[in-house]
Amino acid sequence: MKFWPINSLRKGILTTKFPGGKNETISPWSTLPVRKNDSEPYCPVNAINMGKVSLEKCISCGRCTDSMEPSLRPDNFEKFREKPLLKRSFKIFPIDSGTCGACNTELFSIGNPYYDATRLGIFFVNTPKQADALAIMGVYGEEMEPVIKKAMDVMAQPAVIILFGACALSGGIIGRGLRDLVDPDLIIGGCPPDPFVILNALEKVRGR
Amino acid sequence: MNSNQIITGFFKKGNDYFCIRDDHRSFEPCLIEEIKNLDYFHALEKEYKHNATGENVFKFNYGPSTGGMVETVDFKIYTYGERILSVDIFPEFKRREIKITREKLDNALLKMERLNGFHSFSYSTLLCSSLERLLGIGIPDDVRIKRILLMETERIISHIFKTARLCEAASQNIASYQLMALREKMMRSVAEITGHRYMFGINKIGGLYRDFESSRLVQMAREAVREYSQIRDGLYFSRIFIDRIENTCKISVPFSRGPTMRASGYAYDYRKMDPYYADLDFSIVTENGGDSLARFQVFAGEIETSLEIMEKAIEQKKGGDFMPELVENEIFGVETPSGDARMFLEMEDNRISNIYLRTPSMLNLEAFARGICGNVKTDIPFAYESFGIWIGELGELL
């Protein structure tokens, strides 16, 4: 079957050089908005205070467009602790606590040929037992609380706990967040976070 | 085949029950006994239990949080070895309660977008168009065309994603990566054109928050469909792929929705009833196999149909306002990429006072549970992917 190798060669190399090079693109409104004029911004989730946008609350809706514009920067995350022991290999187990599906598919996007997270030593695993990091996304759900706690219990140390997306961080516009349930090492904002932001954040929490 | 105008949803208003039927634009009064007699009644209540007993039968647990699935869902598989006798499905691990009633309409719209982020534009269009008609708001015809273009783009992206997941589960990794790359290329273009990869924040009651250039979207779709067709042809030549998905999770039930239903020979597509598509002639893609192969063929056919609709829509430049007639007791609807969603909506003081939404995944999850019986456990991932089920859609709208 010659079709597949020929078709693959024809497409050439798609993979980004990021984080070594600049990100080629970014989903504009998934990045944090910045001021473009002095008018009072409107935000349906009160994410803007004194002109500063909370990465935990912003739901990337763009309703503030009259006074704000997307920053287009892939730095919509905050690192609380660094785990340099995980520099070489980093295995992630995603947990969906109550998402709309967008965070799930954006996280898996880093595995597609445009990002190819495996070149950076980042892999997805099928059980938390083998994982170095838990990426928890979605709003709080009572049924998922024991599942999340059990997953954290079975992980080997050092482990990274990631809260992923506006819903997990603050509940977004849908419900309650997960900040009072877990103590994260890394938070990634956006609704949903852009794959370049995800890659950038994962690299930084490993001290790379 | 005709779906016999079957009941696909019901709701209570006061002390009375009302049902939704295929091919009907209005809801009708009905007796609760009639609904309870439906053999898929529990699916309309979002319960999927099919207990099986027998010698050496045991329950095998898969989920709720496992690497093989995109979303959280728990399967209890009844088996005595490899063969699946029956399956219970528990979607409630991630059941969200989303408050829509009494909310500001714009906030209700933001919440609706996040019912299913993957099909967000279809759901936001459903809410916008329903509210516009209830409030008597006309939209410029250009907005109608742009909404169609975005909904069809969403369908193409969704079908590419489902095909990629199907390929991955059937060990066609090169095809899967090429399809994922194609989807990423489309997502990047959508972000560039509309400002958001998942089309969040674009729809507005009475119009669009962010305008865009229609011709760029259609050009992007043309290129994507051309590339998809090459990969599809490559897959048709792969005996391994075809053998793996043929006869897997075969199902033929008129209550299933969207591509799943059309892959069983039922020619029902809500777009034929949707006033948005009234002047856009297209053929409904159907297959008769009812298996994962037939569903893949329907995805492939519908990707081409979507492009055809986009090409026709962009040629329509009527001008003026679009304001379809509101029929009595109207049940609103939209054909999402996974099938038709139907919605009952009531308003009071310019806020939503009552809402009922029947999503395609409610019924497709039941179709999957029935179809997977008799298959083996390793068939679960690609059978499931071929149904286009999104557990997020099973959330409660309050």
Q: What structural keywords apply?
A:
heterodimer; A: alpha/beta; Rossmann fold; six-stranded mixed β-sheet; two-stranded antiparallel sheet; 5 helices; B: Cytochrome-c3 Hydrogenase, chain B; three-stranded antiparallel β-sheet; 12 helices; 17% strand
Brief overview:
The complex is a heterodimer of chains A (208) and B (398). With 208 residues, chain A is of the alpha/beta class.
Task: Strand order, main sheet of chain A: write it out.
Answer: 5-10-9-8-6-7
Structure annotation, total helices of chain A: 5
* CATH A-level architecture of the domain at 77-205 in chain A: 3-Layer(aba) Sandwich
Task: State the major sheet of chain A.
Answer: 6 strands, mixed
**Number of DSSP strand runs of chain B:** 15
Under CATH, the homologous superfamily of chain B reads Cytochrome-c3 Hydrogenase, chain B
User: Into which percentage range does the β-strand content of chain B fall?
Assistant: 15-25%
Strand order of the largest sheet of chain B: 1-2-3
Shape of chain B: globular
Task: Describe this entry's structure for a reader.
The complex is a heterodimer of chains A (208) and B (398). With 208 residues, chain A is of the alpha/beta class. Chain A has helices at 3-11, 102-109, 145-154, 165-170, 195-205; strands spanning 33-35, 48-49, 52-53, 68-70, 77-79, 90-98, 122-124, 133-138, 160-164, 186-188. Chain B has a single domain, classed as Orthogonal Bundle (Cytochrome-c3 Hydrogenase, chain B). In chain B, a hairpin with a 6-residue loop joins strand 2 and strand 3 (28-30). In chain B, the strands form 6 sheets. In chain B, strands 1-2-3 form a 3-stranded antiparallel sheet. The model of chain B has no long low-confidence stretch (mean pLDDT 92). Chains A and B meet through helix 1, strand 6 and helix 2 of A and strand 7, helix 3, helix 6 and helix 7 of B.
